[in-house]
Design brief:
Blueprint: H1 3-24, H2 30-36, E1 41-46, H3 52-60, E2 76-80, E3 89-91, H4 92-95, H5 111-114, E4 117-121, E5 131-134, H6 141-144, H7 151-161, E6 164-169, H8 177-187, E7 197-201, H9 210-228, E8 236-238, H10 255-266, H11 272-331, H12 338-344, H13 353-384, H14 395-413, H15 424-447
Parallel strand pairs: 1-5, 1-6, 2-4, 6-7, 7-8
Antiparallel strand pairs: 2-5, 3-4
Bound molecules: guanosine-5'-triphosphate and magnesium ion.
Guanosine-5'-triphosphate (GTP) binds near residues 68, 72, 203 and 245.
Length: about 450
């Protein structure tokens, strides 16, 4: 089975099995759905004037994007071939309304963003099975606020969909790289680690000499360790655009770095299926922990329910047989009790009225006490601390819970006593089966 067929099969299976489960836990299935749609994506981000558009033009072999020394791009441009649109350039308003494209959820960021997204259709063999997204360069934190939409969040949203994220640093500009990195990192699945991000130091030809270059590189490494919180520095590709560079510049010794980077970008589509699995894995783990919180609460509520039920039934039975006897002893009414009527005869059906009322009333009071008092109390406790019954034994589970606690709280808040019987336990089993069986099989398939 080739990758495309595998992706199609995965899409059908995921939709059938997961969509209803996500809906049950009030979670958005859109994320998975948009990942599965469309083609592999490469996202290029970085400081303004770091050479993003220049690199893209070189990759495509055409001058598709404008370039310039001042901040040039203020839009997210999706560049691909064969978009299904006749026009060379399609505005964001069309893109976010097209159910065949994975951009519908960007509608939520508002009009301002929509007017800053567009798609360009370009004929290039590279783009047959890939789309490249050029992004507005990062400015400083104050200017970011003037964009009219949450730039960091949008960046995170694009990063979530991307199979490769090229993060370009221009050694001479600080920008909001750290914030942007955090925004991206937070949206990527835990499992994917850093391998979806490629770090690039660009325009190295502008360093006057080797010591100037070493200083810039050293500063960048320092900034990166601050940014990633790690001491080991990931590979940083060193590049420059040959067409722009001065002859005899310091970077001429390392052309292979740029070639390697370009190769990596060209191969990005090969990671697609793996990334889809990682994304599904992450989102199913998210829904799983919510489901666990709900199930463990309901299990507890169920135990309490049976305590109430057993006591109510026992009391009802007692009152059914002896309630009228007690009443008779205390008040003299009813004159003939049900038991006397049965023992002495002839049996009078009307003697059952009081026992039935007493027994039924006890059951009603018992169930009201459970639903109006006991269940509510339990729920209040669970809403205050949904993790009470969960095993948060690893860092991974603790982080996952932190992320999903609010969704779990909303789910718990919406539960009623009748939910004891509405199949939450089965849903949790289904989710766990998907993680332990279906997803494992797919991982095995792509390894082979
Ligand atoms: N010397 C040199 N100049 C470069 C290099 N890459 C790009 N440039 C120039 O730097 C300027 C900015 O490049 P762009 O490609 O527009 O940068 P960008 O990252 O797309 O910038 P924004 O769209 O504003 O975010 C342009 O004038 C390019 O010609 C390079 O490697 N070396
Ligand atoms: Mg640009």
């Amino acid at each position: 089975m080739n990758e495309k067929e595998l992706q199609k099969q995965l899409q059908t299976k995921v939709k059938k099995k997961l969509e209803p489960l996500f809906a049950k836990y009030k979670m958005d299935f859109g994320g998975i759905d948009s990942t599965l749609k469309w083609k592999p994506l490469v996202l290029i981000i970085g400081n303004y004037s770091s050479g993003k558009s220049t690199l893209i033009n070189e990759l495509i072999g055409q001058d598709v994007q404008r370039t310039g020394q001042a901040p040039t791009d203020d839009s997210f441009t999706i560049i691909t071939s064969d978009t299904g649109y006749e026009n060379v350039e399609t505005p964001g308003s069309n893109l976010v309304n097209d159910p065949n494209l994975p951009f519908q959820h960007f509608k939520g960021f508002g009009e301002k963003l929509i007017s800053h997204i567009c798609m360009k259709q370009v004929n290039s063999p590279l783009l047959d099975n890939m789309a490249i997204i050029d992004s507005p360069g990062m400015l400083d934190a104050t200017s970011e606020k003037d964009r009219g939409y949450d730039y960091m969040q949008v960046l995170g949203e694009f990063a979530k969909m991307a199979d490769l994220i090229v993060l370009m640093f221009d050694p001479h500009k600080a920008g909001t790289i750290k914030e942007s990195y955090d925004a991206i990192r937070n949206t990527l699945p835990e499992k994917s680690g850093e391998h979806r991000i490629v770090f690039v130091m660009s325009r190295i030809d502008e360093c006057d000499n080797l010591s100037d270059f070493t200083r810039s590189y050293g500063t960048l490494c320092w900034n990166m360790s601050q940014m990633t919180g790690r001491k080991d520095i990931p590979h940083i590709y060193l590049t420059y655009a040959p067409g722009q560079a001065k002859v005899g510049n310091v970077a001429e010794g390392w052309p292979q770095e740029r070639e390697e980077l370009i190769e990596k970008i060209k191969k990005a589509s090969g990671f697609r299926i793996n990334h889809i699995l990682e994304d599904i894995d992450r989102q199913v783990n998210e829904v799983e922990i919510v489901a666990e919180a709900v199930s463990s609460f309901l299990k507890r509520a169920n135990t309490v329910y049976w305590k109430f039920a057993n006591v109510s039934i026992a009391l009802a039975a007692l009152l059914f047989f002896f309630g009228d006897v007690i009443l008779n002893a205390v008040s003299g009414y009813p004159e003939t009790t049900m038991l006397t009527s049965i023992r002495v005869g002839p049996f009078d059906l009307s003697t059952m009225i009081i026992p039935v009322i007493l027994a039924f009333g006890t059951l009603v009071i018992g169930s009201l006490a459970y639903s109006k008092i006991a269940f509510r109390q339990l729920k209040k406790k669970a809403v205050a601390n949904g993790a009470e019954f969960l095993d948060l034994d690893t860092d991974y589970r603790r982080n996952l819970w932190e992320k999903m606690a609010e969704t779990a709280r909303e789910n718990l808040e919406g539960l009623g006593p009748y939910d004891l019987w509405s199949g939450y336990g089965r849903s949790l089993t289904k989710i766990q089966n998907f993680l332990n069986n279906d997803l494992k099989k797919y991982y095995e398939k792509i390894v082979i």
